[in-house]
Amino acid sequence: MNPRFTIALDAMGGDHAPASVVRGAALARKRHPDLDFLFFGKEEEICPLLQRLRALRQGVEIIHTDDAVRDDDKPSVVLRSGRNSSMRLAIDAVKNGRAGAVVSSGNTGALMAMSKFVLRTLPGVDRPAIASFFPTQRGESVMLDLGANVSCDARNLVEFTIMGSAFARSVLGVRTPTYGLLNVGSEEMKGHEALQEARERLASLDLPGRFHGFVEGDDIAKGTVDVVVTDGFTGNVALKTAEGTVKLYSEFLRRTFRHSLLASLGYLLARPAMRKLRQRVDPRRYNGAVFLGLAGIAVKSHGGSDALGFAHAIGVAADLAHHGFIDAMRADFEALTRAAQAPAQAAAG
């Protein structure tokens, strides 16, 4: 059996908080019975919800605070004035060792800013990146950055690749992940200067896995590589485009099956297959974006997620912890640093 593991939850973050947070924790415990929870938020709202859920009768604690980060709060303002907010206190719990990870559905910018300020970045990491799962024809892949860094240089893209590779090995279970740089074409001469420089560096580095080279937008859904690396501007546009496309096709299917009586009868026959399709593309199954590069585990749940979506975000945090993700990523950066220093040391010797 795994030892008990505690996760700090920002109970007041998100559109449906605290109900989605509390119920999501109950669902997550069914899959991870070794989890304990610290709920940060308004006790008078959290406590009644806990009392209705038998799965959360033990192994939980409420840390009361009246302050919460709002969706429209600026990260710079929150850093100065949000020290007693439910989000900040949950992050502090990871820093001081009370919890092994933090999960929040709150303001993304504020969560990133406070997580970076409190938890700090790992040695060798210049900027953290937001990573998440993508369903593909081959299974699942990871993509980063999804919005933390609008503009990136070659060094950032190389760091993102190292972090994404560690994520794929730890969470997706891919021993030798393939990774590629998202570009406007797969040819080596395509792309701007930063992409060209990043490609040259990655081609020469001895990283776990295999560097595929450049990949295009349609390669994301194909599953051409296990790790898709790009800047935060492009990654966020790709993410929102994918989400919008799923909603569009869902609406097309709904209208098609309601078009006529014969189409409705066809839906009854196809209902088992349609149920599998909905489960396969359900965005709640892929909820839980990770702030990679921090010296602690911080997971961002979608602001509008329900209990099932939040439970999956908790599951991501638990999987990262159980598979030693932080240690794996730290080891990769240390190995890269040693490899970079070796030629200089040899010349000096």
Question: Can you give a write-up of this model?
Answer:
The chain starts with a strand and ends with a helix. α3 (75-81) packs across α5 (108-119) and α6 packs across α7 (193-204). It is globular and about 60 Å long. By secondary structure, it is α/β, with parallel strands linked by helices. An eleven-stranded mixed sheet has the order 3-2-1-4-11-10-5-6-9-7-8, with helices on both faces. Helices cover 50% and strands 17% of the residues. It contains twelve helices and eleven strands.
Overall geometric form: globular
Strand arrangement in the largest pleated sheet: 3-2-1-4-11-10-5-6-9-7-8
Main sheet: strands, sense, barrel: 11 strands, mixed
Strand count? 11
Ends apart, CA distance between termini: 50 Å
- Give the topology string: H per helix, E per strand: EHEHEHHEHEEHEHEHEHHEEHH
Question: Strands, helices and their partners?
Answer:
Elements: E1 5-10, H1 19-31, E2 35-41, H2 43-51, E3 60-64, H3 75-81, H4 86-95, E4 101-104, H5 108-119, E5 129-136, E6 139-144, H6 154-172, E7 178-182, H7 193-204, E8 210-215, H8 217-222, E9 227-229, H9 232-257, H10 261-281, E10 289-292, E11 297-300, H11 307-322, H12 325-348
Helix pairs in contact: 1-11, 3-5, 4-5, 6-7, 6-12
